[in-house]
Amino acid sequence: PPQVSFTLELEFSCSILLDHAEVMLQATSDSTEATPEDNVVKLSVPIRYEPDLFLSSNTNLHHYEVHPLGTFTHSSGPEFTTTVKVQNFGCYPIQNVTLHMALPALGHRQATILSITHVLTDNATCVLQPPPEGTQVVPVPPEDLLHVDR
């Protein structure tokens, strides 16, 4: 029997969110058929909306000079604030977004080069967790600390 293939392109509205789309296809002919009941098919397909997320960050301290090797002090350096923002530029609502951040907190000889003092959140929940058990924390090599953007 002859076959026909075609592609359907559906466009959806931002104001009405659907979880599935239904399409009914029917083939007709001027000829007499013995089994016309198989000329109709009804398809139902789930709809998944693509998110349009934008991640940005900003800090009030763009450069800080770390003491030379072997001269780390135990005093705290300057406090700086880093803002991380997740924006949804799409017209569909997004739920259950999780953002994982790993901060390079150790330097040469396991010296602490970064510690979090407090966290402020807006429309989000933040959980500070140590690395999972068994995870090896790799210090930032001294040579990596020499290459900074000024």
Automatic annotation (TrEMBL):
GO terms for biological process: cell adhesion mediated by integrin; cell-cell adhesion; cell-matrix adhesion; integrin-mediated signaling pathway. GO terms for cellular component: external side of plasma membrane; integrin complex. This is ITA10 protein. Coiled coil: none annotated. The lineage of its organism: Eukaryota, Metazoa, Chordata, Craniata, Vertebrata. GO terms for molecular function: integrin binding. PANTHER family: INTEGRIN ALPHA, INTEGRIN ALPHA-10.
